[in-house]
Amino acid sequence: MARPREFDENKVLQLAVEQFWERGYEATSIRDLAQAMGLTTASIYNAFGDKRAVYRRALDFYVEQSFGDRVGRFEKRLPRDAIQAFFHEIIDRSLSDTKRKGCMLVNSALEVAPHDEEFQRVVSGVLSQVEAFFRRCIEAGQNDGSIDRRQSATDMAGTLLGTLLGIRVLARTRPEKNLLEGLIRPVFAMLEPESKQQLDQSFA
Hints:
Elements: H1 9-23, H2 30-37, H3 41-47, H4 51-74, H5 79-95, H6 104-111, H7 117-144, H8 153-170, H9 177-191, H10 194-202
Helix pairs in contact: 1-2, 1-4, 4-7, 5-7, 5-9, 6-7, 7-8, 8-9
């Protein structure tokens, strides 16, 4: 009979996330993980597998705790408000990131995915989910009149995804509030219904 695990799996995965997130995949050794997770290397191999397997589990855990949680909270809001709240939270998190760790998913896209087909699929799949969240919000907003209809929801969702990735990468080297907020103002303006834009121009 297998012995029950003597550790909290979510807790040690969070510790693995923090280790990989701060140092990256290549710079993290299995010994680094053992020290960070409070486990022996043998326990890590028995419970999770090699470093690559731990990274996959840690990345999945990170995505669920970050993106999964954020979408769950914001999809309950009105469509345009959901998008704006999403980006405001991303900027707040980026500005409060004193270690400039960025987003672990985006870091994975840059460091690991280009050289690993499995991680290419994993990262691509999550980015597709992010894009789908934006598209759902845009389609709902276009239906209720709160988001402009002149461009397709697919194109606008792609623009939002690109803006999100740009913010996350740029914030690692230039975490400047004015700069990051300047990136989202034109995007938010793009979402404004044409009638609202015309009204604003008439009072300009």
